[in-house]
Backbone:
């Protein structure tokens, strides 16, 4: 049985073809996320991207927003403890027109102490940790996830709106209006001051902290060119403080997984706070899909 | 000397004409905020709105964003303790073309423990409190202000981005995307649950709390029609918690000043949290301008 894994998110389509021994043979990527697909024509889109891979002997695992309410097949959420094999066994099967077998993976949810959801990030988590490991995996991004892993399974997690909040404040808020067009190259100091303010746990909280990025510039405490870096730091500082507090198992060193530049930015923030962090493996998603592809044969 | 006070903000132009005994004679309001004025033609705009009031015997106090960097004359910020008479004495005088005397009022700033600024809200504060009073004045809104007043003067304050954050999240974020078009009439319960969550001080913080308004709807904990009310509650709950913590003098009952519907909303939130609040006078701004107009003669 040939195995293909498709990571189909809102903006991007990424497909991986694995050999029978589980090695990655080929990959294909396109800006063909589910938001670009009209009238639910997902199967047409799939054939357009990787039609030449889709013979009847093929099993295709699909993950990401393609399995959401706005996707092709909405799958349930797996509750903690959520393991990689649990994901595979809860996949929803559908035949493709070509005769290939489609398996839509579930998402993972958290129900207590707070509701939370992920679709896709769990693959990176499983790619980054070993099947028996305890870990605190941090996936920075638009919606940063702090994932507590116990014995290789997701025990719980929290999402922080950090990256999206930064974009909202820079692009649409009164704070962003002071940022000079094309402002760049602000000092690293502005970012680190923001990180320390956000992490400080001062009682005025986030709604005030972000406003100080405007007020301080108006009062001449710093230059308007520093507002964006300061805002970024404030939000990441808040996330780091809350992330540790939300972790299920205390004392674990955060394992940073994701895009290199963003990981580096977080590593600088942790370091400035005197906190340890570790860099996770590159290509955690591919590794997660490889593991999943290998499992797919036996479980699904 | 005839006295006119102009509250000229980003979106609105409001002018008040007072008699020699300080009684309000006439008012004029237009959607002619400074953002509608092209090429700095503020004097043309002033004459278009209230030109018939502007004879040489007139003194005009101007307040609000018209005194900001994007306005007509940028005035300095008065530092705490900031009194009404301090405002009047620090006004920046300019002759108008008609011979009338323009007085641009300063803003008020806070320098420690955090930078903060206001332009215009201070008038409402002085309108709401007596010249010798201690008070905690809360002005809910796009940028809510919690103002500590000691012996009638502003001793310090904090701004919370509550209203703007609500608009950003509803209109531009992934959370807002789940809100059905035209959703309204959500239960008061959703708002109150949000207030309690936001006020709880749970360690996951605001960046996670707002995401739960999406995740909970996806998991069926509540209906998508409740997301907006829940978000509003979460943000107001965070503001109330942080507002009390930021107050300079403990133990004062918040005096709510501003637009009636918004004040009522906050009063419900305080009540649900078992906290006392009091409703400030209606028309605090007009009363503040009246007091200022009366002072203008002697001080400016």
Residues:
């Amino acid at each position: 049985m040939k195995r293909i894994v498709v990571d189909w998110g809102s903006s991007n389509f990424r497909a991986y073809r694995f050999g029978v021994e589980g090695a990655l043979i080929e990959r294909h990527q396109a800006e063909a996320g589910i938001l670009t697909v009209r009238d639910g024509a997902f199967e047409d889109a799939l054939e357009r991207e990787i039609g030449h891979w889709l013979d009847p002997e093929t099993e295709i695992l699909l993950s990401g927003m393609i399995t959401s309410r706005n996707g092709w097949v909405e799958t349930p959420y797996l509750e903690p403890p959520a393991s990689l094999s649990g994901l595979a066994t809860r996949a929803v099967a559908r035949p493709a027109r070509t005769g290939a077998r489609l398996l839509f993976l579930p998402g993972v949810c958290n129900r207590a102490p707070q509701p939370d959801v992920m679709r896709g990030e769990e693959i990176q988590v499983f790619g980054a940790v070993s099947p028996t490991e305890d870990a605190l995996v941090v996936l920075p991004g638009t919606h940063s996830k702090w994932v507590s892993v116990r014995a290789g399974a997701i025990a719980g997690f929290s999402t922080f709106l950090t990256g999206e909040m930064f974009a909202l404040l820079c692009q649409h808020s009164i704070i962003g209006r002071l940022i000079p067009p094309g402002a760049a190259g602000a000092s690293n100091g502005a970012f680190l001051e923001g990180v320390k303010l956000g992490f400080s746990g001062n009682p005025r909280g986030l709604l005030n902290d972000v406003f100080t990025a405007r007020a301080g510039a108006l009062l001449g405490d710093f230059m308007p060119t520093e507002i964006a870096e300061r805002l970024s730091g404030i939000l990441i500082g808040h996330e780091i403080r809350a992330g540790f507090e939300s972790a299920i198992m205390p004392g674990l060193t955060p394992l940073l997984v994701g895009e290199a530049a963003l990981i580096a930015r977080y590593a600088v923030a942790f370091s400035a706070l005197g906190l340890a962090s570790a860099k996770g493996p590159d290509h955690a998603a591919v590794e997660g899909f490889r593991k999943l592809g290998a499992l797919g044969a036996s479980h699904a």
User: Anything to note?
Assistant: The radius of gyration of chain A is 21 Å.
